[in-house]
Amino acid sequence: MACNTWILGAFVFTVLLCATEGGSHVERQTTEGRVHGRIVRSLGRSVEEFRGIPYAEPPVGKLRFRPPQPKKPWEGTLDATSGSTGCPQVTIRGVNMQGVTNTEDCLYLNVWVPENASNADSSRPVLVWIHGGGFSYGSANQALYSAVVLTALTDVLVVSINYRLGILGFLNAYSPEAPGNVGLLDQVMALKWVKRNIEFFGGDPQRVTIFGQSAGSMSVHAHIMSPMSQGLFKRAVLMSGVMYGIDMWDTVQESVAKGDRVASMAGCLNGRNISSDPEGVIDCLRNKSAEELVVAAAESKSPMESLPDWMGPPHSSDLSFVFGERYAAEPASRDGRMSEIFMRMVATFSENGNGWRGSFDCPQRRRAVRVYHASPDLLTSETVCKAQAKPV
């Protein structure tokens, strides 16, 4: 039996719901081949569950650091009953990764289908979940993200996706060998899979909503702005995170410098650096194990001390780009050009009391406490520290 606690939308409430495993199995066709899933029960309803469907070729060997490649068709029927992968990552205290196996071959997604959804009636809306974790940790296969109950409760299809993290997902050598942001390109590839295949599961490819939390929410915001994602979704939900939020977005120079530090720790510089010899450094990094690279990256500490230095998506005001391409239009603080088909953006903003307040202390925050008599335990410190606090 699996139980889930849900926090839905801007209204925060807790519901403990349980799903029980069933004994039946189900098969669906995709453009790459047939997949074999299982049927579970929740809220008195049947839900089809497919775990571990590959949406891209394994990003290993020469494909490490490179954009994802489409998954080649397979013969026979693929077992999608027990996918449990996560991309290589650091271990964060308090993050439940029980049952998740970290492996570089991690570009898989999960699909939950409500009962009576047939590909002859492809009309149900679709939710695509992008997990958070600072672009450094997390997995679509964390128990927290099982969508059995959500699917039974809402009668929508739910998809959750893995994407490359940390140095393996965001190393930028300013070179075709490692162009940066491949973790976000993974997400685009997964959205293309949904566009191409979700009708086989009874979903409507024209009614796709992407949603995510924290780094997942930042990713959603990036997809809203990126021309590479246009036409892949209709709506978006941002849950506590935007592109201009916490400092996980790097300039190209910052990203290259972080790559040099990791390469140095991994023994791959030897008198050179990424700027002078990107191909040589990347070849050396490709000959290291994924675990070696994750450990080397973790040795670079962030200001939050308990976390490794962010190997974030390159982003800066002087070169505003995402997924390796410039934006269609420069985003502004007051307006932005959104796709005409984009209907609604819902953002939630959550404060957890004392979250990170010590790490993001700054003069603006202290002034807000003094001038406005604001409670230091309720301030969202990152927001305050990014703004100029002025009396009115």
Model description:
The chain has 392 residues and is of the alpha/beta class. It has 2 domains: 19-350, 3-Layer(aba) Sandwich (Rossmann fold); 356-392, no CATH class. 22% of the residues lie in helices and 24% in strands. It contains 9 helices and 17 strands. It has helices spanning 148-154, 166-170, 182-197, 215-225, 252-265, 278-286, 290-298, 363-372, 381-386; strands at residues 2-5, 16-29, 34-42, 45-54, 77-79, 85-86, 101-102, 108-114, 124-130, 157-161, 172-175, 178-179, 203-213, 235-239, 321-322, 325-326, 345-348. The longest helix is centred in the middle third of the chain and has 16 residues, at 182-197. The termini are far apart.
Largest beta-sheet characterization: 11 strands, mixed
CATH class of the largest domain: Alpha Beta
CATH topology of the largest domain: Rossmann fold
As residue ranges, the low-confidence spans are: 1-21, 302-308, 315-360, 371-392
Q: How many extended strands?
A: 17
Order of helices and strands: EEEEEEEEEHEHEEHEHEHHHEEEHH
The helix content, as a percent range, equals 10-25%
Distance between the termini: 55 Å
Radius of gyration: 21 Å
The global form is globular
Instruction: Give the CATH superfamily of the largest domain.
Output: Alpha/Beta hydrolase fold, catalytic domain
CATH architecture of the largest domain: 3-Layer(aba) Sandwich
Oligomer: single chain
Strand content: 15-25%
- Tally of alpha and pi helices: 9
Structural class comes to alpha/beta
Number of domains: 2
What number is the mean pLDDT? 76
EC number: 3.1.1.-
Pfam families: COesterase
Family: Belongs to the type-B carboxylesterase/lipase family.
Enzyme class: hydrolase
